[in-house]
Design a protein that fits this description.
Helix content is about 50%, strand content about 15%. The chain is of the alpha+beta class. The chain has a two-stranded antiparallel sheet.
């Protein structure tokens, strides 16, 4: 699954770039993704998430056919978003980095 994770990160980065967003931290977990991203307010976070999930589902299933038979759905309809306006980004970034050790 290492190739899938590498490809998923590339897809997420491509979408972020299209929306002129900066990925500050990204960790792929077995059943979810942690993403700290800075984007222009006019981009609309819901649009970015929709593109990341939709494009990654389509491309990963096309490029890795075994995913189709192992997972009924690549993503659920849900996601969690929180703004971090006043929080120190270094603390949030460290939290996301530490998730790979959990």
């Amino acid at each position: 699954m290492g190739e899938v994770v590498i490809r998923l990160k590339a897809i997420i980065r491509d979408v972020a770039e299209e929306f002129k967003a900066e990925i500050i931290e990204l960790e792929i977990m077995p059943d979810h993704v942690h993403l700290l991203i800075e984007l222009p307010p006019q981009s609309g976070i819901h649009k970015v998430v929709k593109q990341m999930k939709g494009r990654s589902s389509r491309l990963l299933r096309k490029e890795f056919p075994t995913i189709k038979s192992r997972l009924p759905s690549l993503w659920t309809n849900s996601y969690f978003i929180s703004t971090v306006g006043g929080a120190p980004l270094s603390v949030i970034k460290q939290y996301i980095e530490n998730q790979k050790n959990v």
